Amino acid sequence: MNENWTFDVETLGTVRVANDLVSSLSQYRQFNHTIPESGGVLMGSFLNSNGALLIDNFTFPQKTDHQGRNNFFRSEAHNNLVHNIWQQSGQKTTYIGLWHTHPEPIPNFSFVDANDWRNALNISSYEGDFLFFMIVGTKSIRCWVGEKKRFRNSISLISEVQIAAK
Ligand SMILES: [Zn+2]
């Protein structure tokens, strides 16, 4: 099992993903056809002015979401949860991205995912210029980093972590 999932993002610094978050997200893996897609928001805190980031919180599927076998619609309910978590943390734990599951071992993003992520980069409000997008497959979690740029936002695969068998 992974001890520490960390990766570096140019101009941001080292990003660390809490082990608890990895195991929590792993519980939503789509091991068989009866398990629908799950998803939510990723949250974390900036550790210092150099921008090092700890990703350690998330929102889980809500009743108002739509969970299909190959699709997930994230409802507005997540916005309130994010606000509550942010307040309860003394305004430290903030929105830093999105996560969802895929019924495949090593996840790849779809056209719909890319649109969703670009919308998040363009429309949602967040600290700094980066958002992180995780897809939880059955064997690994992959993380893409999206960067808000003046002319065209970029999205690139930045890291992957193996997850233990069930
Ligand atoms: Zn997807």
Rg over CA atoms, rounded to whole Å, is 15 Å
Helical/strand content category: alpha+beta
Number of strand elements: 10
CATH class value: Alpha Beta
Low-pLDDT parts are none
What series of H and E elements makes up the topology?
EEHEEEEHEHEEE
Helix content: 10-25%
Strand proportion: 35-45%
Report what the structure shows.
The protein has helices at residues 19-26, 77-88, 111-123, and strands at residues 5-9, 13-17, 39-46, 53-58, 66-67, 72-73, 94-101, 130-136, 140-147, 154-162. The chain has 166 residues and is of the alpha+beta class. The chain has a single domain (5-162), classed as Cytidine Deaminase, domain 2 (3-Layer(aba) Sandwich). The strands form two sheets. The protein has an eight-stranded mixed sheet with strand order 1-2-4-3-7-8-9-10. The radius of gyration is 15 Å and the shape is globular. The model has no long low-confidence stretch (mean pLDDT 93).
